[in-house]
Amino acid sequence: MLYGVNCTTKVWDDLKPYLSKYETVYAEYPHEVTKCADNVEALTKWVYENYGNQAFDVIIGHSLGGIIALQLSAEYGMPFSRIIYLDTNLKPANEFYRNLMTPQNMKRFGDIILPMFKEESQFYSQKFFDCIKDSFDYTPYLMRLDQKVYGIYGDRNRSDYKARIDELNLPDEVLEKLDLRFVSNACHMIMMENPAELFETLEEIIDS
User: Fold this and answer.
1) DSSP reduced 3-state for 155
2) How far apart are CA 5 and CA 188, in angstroms?
3) Which is it for strands 82-86 and 58-62: parallel, antiparallel or unpaired?
4) Separation in Å, CA 154 to CA 12, 46, 87, 162
5) Cβ atoms within 10 A of the Cβ of 136, count?
6) Nearest CA to 85 among 56, 71, 57, 64?
7) How far apart, in Å, are the Cα atoms of 126 and each of 111, 130, 133, 145?
8) Which residue of 2, 5, 164, 199 pairs with 18 in a disulfide if CB–CB is 3.0 to 4.6 A?
9) Where are the alpha helices (DSSP H) in the chain?
10) How confident is the model over 29-42, as pLDDT tens digits?
11) d(Cα 90, Cα 178) in Å, to the nearest integer?
């Protein structure tokens, strides 16, 4: 399990009980590593150096963690039977995907997640933030893989919105490599907002 930028392993706390039937490793990037990282590749290198000698059947990455997952497979050749990312943007997405939580969930979890973001942001450089903003394209990593990749997104409480896949701004050849799923009552922080439905989706993918 790989979390995203400005997060800690605490973002998995609500999901952990559901995953208890699996042997699960929750990676944690040291602050001394994130402070020196100028790009995502630097974090991926650290993850590989610390976990690359272990055999993992499934890798799950949230947001930035999803990019690390793709890089571990495409760049370092780590074999996974399932690669799953959670609300990861491979290219800059439209406004539909640029929200942290639903208003209702922000009332529930805002006092937890916002201080975490503020605290952790000091352990990343401005150069790192700049590289993940608006001019990135991680689709080449996906295209180098021989397997489908599973992408799970919060549906932003708009399950009837037919253009939600178009809002990802991904070309057809990329979409053909993806198996996309959507979780209700959730935005970016799916694992906190709706861990039960997220687990049902993960379980279906992992055990299939």
Assistant:
1) coil
2) 12
3) parallel
4) 16, 29, 7, 14
5) 15
6) 64
7) 25, 6, 11, 31
8) 199
9) 31-34, 40-51, 64-74, 103-121, 126-131, 139-143, 172-175, 190-193, 195-207
10) 999 999 999 999 99
11) 11
Torsion angle defined by CA atoms of residues 117, 34, 23 and 48, in that order, rounded to the nearest 10 degrees: 150
pLDDT band with cut points at 50, 70 and 90 for residue 5: very high
How open is the CA angle 30-33-39, to the nearest 5 degrees? 130
Q: Among 86, 38, 36, which residue's Cα sits nearest to residue 59?
A: 86
> What angle do helix axes 40-51 and 64-74 make, rounded to 10 degrees?
60
Digit-coded pLDDT (tens) for 113-147: 999 999 999 999 999 999 998 789 999 999 999 99
- Is the per-residue pLDDT at 171 higher than 90? yes
Confidence (pTM): 0.96
Mean pLDDT of all residues in 65-81: 97
Please state, in angstroms and as integers, the Cα–Cα distance from residue 206 to each residue in 59, 60, 84, 113, following that order.
10, 10, 9, 28
Helix (H, G, I), strand (E, B) or coil at 26: coil
86/64 Cα distance (integer angstroms): 9
